[in-house]
Amino acid sequence: MKAFILAAGVGTRMRPLTAYTPKPLLPVAGKPILQHTIDALDGRVDEIIVLVGWQGSQIKEGLRSKKTDITFAKQEEPLGTAHAISIAKRFVEGDFICMNGDILLEEGALVSFMEGFTGRNTTMLAVANVKDPKGYGLVDMDGDSVTGLVEKPEHPVSNWVNAGLYGFTYDIFEMIESTGMSPRGEYEITDSLKYLISKGELTGHRLNEDSWIELSRPWDLLKANSQILRSLKEEQMILGEVEEGVHLEGWVSIGKGTVVRQGSYIRGPVFVGENADIGPNCLVRGCTSIGNRCKVGNAVEVKNSIVMDGSNIPHHNYLGDSVIGRNCNFGSGAKVANLRLDGRNIVVTHRDERVDTGMRKLGVIMGDNVKTGINSMMNTGTIIGEDTFIGPGALADGEIGPRSRIR
Questions:
Q1: Considering the chain, what percentage of its residues have pLDDT values greater than 90?
Q2: Residue 230: in which H helix or E strand, if any?
Q3: Would you say 274 and 262 are in contact if contact means Cβ atoms under 8 Å apart?
């Protein structure tokens, strides 16, 4: 059996993090989103076909497989999910697994789905139970049979949603050929699946709670990062240099070429990439991922955050519950607020839309190449576009567009 992964989207809902980086390559727990899926499939399928579009060359360079061949296909125009899946016809000969490239599944859940689909001779749809189903494709079920699909209803009557994981028979291509264009101007796979529902030929597979994460908005990366890091059971992996006087607690991974300097305190689970410079005298707290060539310096505290490759938090800084893009630099004394004084959920403005993140703690979402001056401040839920400068002593608040200058 082969696996077909949809990774051709532009990832606009992940802006500003996807201004220069394709969504499948955004890091979670030290690996690109899509690499987690590749690793789970590795050795369990005959071939992995990844459908790319925007920045496809980056995706090709950023993914690796040890046991299974990876083939790349291209969607020239974004004409919808049904059109994207139709491209698989050139690569598969029979039943195949198909999944969205922006979901994360526990390895056991993926294996269970594949075992349930194998030999069944019917199309299978994975469904997940979520607390707030608004914004999802709702799935109605009678036992294991899918009886209805409703795309993003205003008043959901169920908490079971389309998880973006499918087991298709070769007949799906005939269904797609009969699918017309939707009001959104796209060919939707949900419309194709409705043909199967009318024939009673669509089966639902319920995923276990917390085995599935959809990465839609930037702050979703923090949930995924925390969940994966907390699940790791291996022993510490120390490949870099750890000086005397360093305290390591819990699960910690230190990459090759990285130096952890005297007086540093790392309380896992924490991942640190290669050729990074940590310390001296800093505190790195749990569920933090620090990328390659990063600096976390003297009197700095970082907790529950993702810091991407080449970014520096070098002097007297606090960073909590935040996602920092590539090649950013914090001035001395720059601080991030991550908790409202009234303790309520953080509501952000993202792409001109007010969104309740559902999180009590959320700091800053920072795009690539952002520079902050000394003693600058970033309020809770601030989103800063790429290539922006935050001046000395300035307060950054709300949604700040790319290439802005805040004084």
A1: 78
A2: helix 220-231
A3: no
Question: Annotated catalytic, 36?
Answer: no
Burial class (CB in 10 A: 0-12, 13-18, 19+), 376: buried
Beta carbons of 322 and 301 less than 8 angstroms apart? no
Final residue belonging to a domain, choices 216, 239, 266: 216
The CATH number given to whatever domain includes residue 85 is: 3.90.550.10
Torsion (CA) 93, 95, 96, 99 in degrees, nearest 10: 140
Residues 328 and 354 in one domain: yes
CB 83 within 8 A of CB 186: yes
* Catalytic residue (choose from 36, 155, 247, 315): 315
Spatial distance between the Cα atoms of 16 and 332, rounded to a whole number of angstroms: 24
Give Cα 276 to chain centroid, integer Å: 23
pTM of the predicted protein model: 0.93
Domain with 399 in it: 229-406
Q: Residues with Cβ < 8 Å from 119, sequence gap 6 or more?
A: none
Inter-residue contact 367 to 19 (CB < 8 Å): yes
Whole-number Cα distances in Å, 379 to 204, 210, 274, 326: 43, 30, 30, 20
Q: How far is 186 from 299, CA to CA, in rounded Å?
A: 52
pLDDT tens-place string over residues 223-253:
999 999 999 877 789 999 999 999 999 999 9
Residue 221 CA to residue 291 CA, distance in Å, equals 14
What are the structure tokens assigned to 238, written together? 């120390």
Q: At what angle do helices 33-41 and 107-117 cross, to 10 degrees?
A: 50
